[in-house]
UniProtKB/TrEMBL annotation:
Keywords assigned: Glycoprotein, Leucine-rich repeat, Repeat, Signal
Name recorded for this polypeptide: LRRCT domain-containing protein
GO annotation, cellular component aspect: extracellular matrix; insulin-like growth factor ternary complex
Segment forming the signal sequence: 1-19
Amino acid sequence: MKAIVLLVLLAQGVLLVQSTPDSSAERGTEEPIPCSKLCTCLYDDYSLELNVYCSLKNLTQVPNDMPTSTHSLWLDGNLFTSLPANSFKDLANLDFLNLQSGQLVTIDAQAFRGLRSLAHVHLERNRLRTLPGTVFQSTPNLASLSLHNNQLARIEERLFAGLSNMWLLNLGWNSIAVLPETAFQDLQGLRELILAGNRLAYLQPQLFQNLVELKELDLTGNFIKVIKANVFIKLTKLQKLYLAQNQIVTVVPRAFMGMKSLRWLDLTNNKLTTLHDDTFLGLHSLHVLRLSNNTITGIRPRTFRDLQYLEELRLSYNRIRSLGDRIFEGLGQLEVLELDHNQVQEAQMGSFTGLSHVAVINLSGSCFITLPDQVFKGLPKLHSLHLDRGCLTRITSQAFTGLSGLRRIFLQHNNISVVEQNSFADMVGLSGLDLRSNKLETLSIQSFTGLKSLEYLLLSSNECHLFVLNDTKQVLPKLRYIDLRNNALANLIPDFPDSMEKLLLSGNPWRCDCKALPLQEYSQRNPLVVPRQLETHAEGEEPDTTITIYNNITCTSPLHLTGQDLRDINSEDFQNC
C-alpha cells in the first residue's frame, strides 16, 4: 500500500515539474509589464533591464507611478517647467535619465534625491538659467552630464562636488562668462569637457589643475583674448584642445608646456598676428595644428622646431606675404601644408626645406608673378600642388625642378600667358594638369614634354587660337581627357593616343573648311570620345551635384555653314578638299 502511495506521489511530482515551465511561459506572455499609464515600458533585449519611454507626451509633471525597477527613463520633449523635490522617488535603480528638449526652468536641490545609481543625465536644450549648488549631491555615481544649449549664466562653486566618477561634462552653448576657480576640482576622472559657445573671456590658472585624466577640452566660440602660461600645465593626458572662434590676440611663450600628449590644437578664427619662437614649445606629440583665419603676418624660422611629429599644418586666410628660408625646418613628418589665401608674394629656394614627407601644399590665392627657380626642390613625396587663383603670368623652365613624384598640379585662374619649354620636364609621375582660365594664346604639345603619365589636361577658358598636336601619341601616351572649351581655336588636327576617353571642344570659333575635315572624321569615328553632351560636376559644387554640358563643334565660317555642327556637315561640302 505504501509503495502505491509513493508511486502516486512521484507521478504527481513529475507532472508538477513538467507543467511548471509551461505555466511560467504562459504567465510571461499573458501578464503585461507593470508601467506608468502615460508611458511605454520595454525590457532591453540584451540586458533585460526595464526601459520606460515617456517622450513627447505633453506631460506637465513627472508621472508618479513609474515602476520601481526602471533602469532607463526617457522624459524628453515634454512641457513641465520644474522638477520639484523627490521627483523620482523609489527609482533607486535608475541609471539613465533623459530630460532634454523640454521647458525646464528650475530644478529643486532635492529633485534627484535617492538616485545613487544614476550614471547618465541629459538636461540639454531646456531653459535652465541656474542650478542649485547641491542638486547633484545625491548622485555620486554620475558618469556623464549634458547641460548644453540652456541659458546658464553662472555655475555654483560646488555644483560638481563629489562627482569623481564623471567622465563627460557638456556645458556648451550657454551664457557662462566666469567659472569659479574650483568648479572642476573634484572631477579627477573627467575625460571630456565641453565649454564651447559660452562667454568666457578669461581662464584662471587653477581652473583645470585637477583634471589629470582629461583627454579632450573644447573652448570654441568664447571671448578669450589671451592664452597665459600654466593654464594647461597639469593637462598631461590631454589629446585635443579646441580654441577656435575666440578673440585670441596673444599666446604667450611656453603657454602649452606640460601638454606632452596633445595631438590636436585648433586656434582657427582668432586675432593672432604673431607667433613667438616658443609658442609651441613642448608639444612633442602634436599631429594637427590649425591656425587659419587669423591675421598672422609672418613665420619665424624656429617657430615649429618642437613639432617633429606634426602631420597637418593649416595657415590659410592669414596675411603672410613672404616665406623665408627654412621656416618649416623640423617638420619632417608633415604631410599637409595649407597656405592658401595669404597673398604670398615671395618665397625662397629654401622656404620648404625639411618637408621630406609633405604630400600636399596649398598656395591657392597667392600672388607670385613668377615662381623662384627650384623653390619646390627636395620634396620627394609631394603629390598635390595648388597654385590656382593667383597672379602667375609665366611658368619658367626651372620652377618645378625635382617634382618627379607630383601627381596633380593646379594652376587654374591665374594670368599665365607663357609656358616655357621643358617647364614640366621633371614631372614624370604627373597625371593631372589644370591650366583653365589663364591667358595662353598658343600651345604646342612640346610644352608638355616629360609628362609621360599625364591623363587629364584642362585648358578651357584660355585665349588659345593655335594648338599644335604633332607627336601627341609620343609626348602624352596616356592622355585620356582634354578640355579645350571656350578658347579661340578655329581648327585642330587631332593626333591623340588610343587611350583618349573625352575631348571637349565647345565654345570655339570653328572654321569648317578643308582643314576641319580631320577633326570631323575623328569626331564621327569616335562619338564616345567627342560626345554631343555629357554629365559632369560643376566647379565648386557638391560632389554629387551633376550638370549637363553640351559639346558642340559649332561652325562660325564659312557663312553658309554658320551655326551648324561640324559633325552634321555633309560630305559634299568637303568634296573639293
